[in-house]
Amino acid sequence: MGCHLNCSIFHCDGGFVTDKPEHSSVLLKEVIAGLEIKPNGIYIDGTFGRGGHSRAILQQLNQEGRLYALDKDDAAIEAGKAIDDKRLCLEKGSFADIEKWANHWAILEQVDGILLDLGVSSPQLDDAERGFSFLREGPLDMRMDAQQELTAAKWLAVADIDEMTQVFREYGEEAYARPIARAIAAARLEAPLQTTKQLADLVSAMVPEGKQWRLTKHPATRIFQAIRIHINSELEALQNFLAQVLRVLAVEGRVAIISFHSLEDRLVKRFIQQGAKGDPYPRDLPIRGAKVVPGLEKGMVSRASAEEIEHNPRARSAILRIMRKIK
C-alpha cells in the first residue's frame, strides 16, 4: 500500500532516508522499543516536527512498510521535504482529526502504531519570531499553525479578566492567575501587549519578590504555557485524538504518547486506565459473573535518563506512555 496521489508532499520515487535529524528527539529509543515496530507495518507520526522520530521508524521498516505523518506547522512540512523516501506520506494536518486522515489514506483499522510527541518543539522555541519563548524577544504569536487567525497578542487584547484567570489557572496552574490577569487588563488600556518580553516582564512584576526565590522556573513559564495551550486548543486536540484512536488502530496496534506537563499526562493516563478496565455494566443490570473485556492494555511508562537530560534538557519533564489495543 503506498501514498495516495493527493498527498501534499508525496515521497514515492526516492530511496531510503539517509539524512540526519536537526535536533534531538525525546525518548527516541524508548519510543521505538515501545511501538515494537513490524518491518511491514503501517504507522502514523501525528507530530512530525523535524522528523527525528519518523526517521527512526523508517529505519525499522522494510520496502512494504509505510509511515504516514502529520503536522500543523508549515515549517515542519517544509523540513519534511528533505526526506526522500517512498514509504513516507507527510501532510499538513492535525492529529485531532486522526480518523479522518486514516480514512483519507485508506488505512482505517490497519494501523500498527501511532506516535504523538506533544507540546512545543525545540525549533519552535528557538525561533524568536514564533513567540513561544519568554527568553527571546519576539512577537506574541504562539500559533502552531501560522494560518490560524488567533495569536497570543490578539487574545490578550480582548479576553476579559475572568477568562484570562480561568485559562491561567486551568492550563498553567498559576497561583497568581487573577492578579496577572488584572495587570494585563490594566496594561492594555495604555497599549496592547505585543512582545514576549513585555508579557514576561509584566508577569515577573506580579510575583512577589519574597516568592520568586522559591521558584524553580522563570515566573512567566506557567503563563506562556497556559496561553499557548489555549490558543492552539492543545488539550481539546488530545481529547479528540483519544476518542478516535481505537477506531484507527488494528488489533494489537500500539500508541506511544510523550507528554511534557501534567495536564496532558493526566488525560492520557486516565484514558489508558479506563480502556484497560473496560466499560462497567450498570449496577442494576441482571447479569452475574459477566466478564467485561477491556479494549486496551497498559504498556510501559518511561522517563528520560540522566544521560539524555544532560544532552537534551527539554527531556527533563517528558513522560512516555504506551498502550496496546487488544480487541
Describe the structure.
There is one protein chain. This protein is an alpha/beta fold and 327 residues long. Helices cover 40% and strands 16% of the residues. The chain is built from 14 helices and 8 strands. Strands 1-4-3-2-5-6-8-7 form an 8-stranded mixed β-sheet, with helices on both faces. α7 (161-172) crosses α11, α8 (177-190) crosses α9 (196-206) and α12 runs parallel beside α13.
Please count the helical segments: 14
Mean pLDDT: 88
Q: Outline, from the CA principal axes?
A: globular
Q: Give, in spatial order, the strands making up the sheet with the most strands.
A: 1-4-3-2-5-6-8-7
User: Which range best describes the helical content: under 10%, 10-25%, 25-40%, 40-55%, 55-70% or over 70%?
Assistant: 40-55%
Q: Please provide the count of β strands.
A: 8
The parts where pLDDT drops under 50 for at least 5 residues are: 8-22, 287-292
Query: What structural class should be given to the helix and strand makeup?
Result: alpha/beta
How big a fraction of the residues is strand?
Answer: 15-25%
Distance between the termini: 24 Å
Radius of gyration based on Cα positions: 21 Å
Biggest sheet overview:
8 strands, mixed
User: SSE order in H/E notation?
Assistant: EHEHEHEHEHHHHHHHHEHEHE
Seen as an oligomer or otherwise, the chain set is: single chain
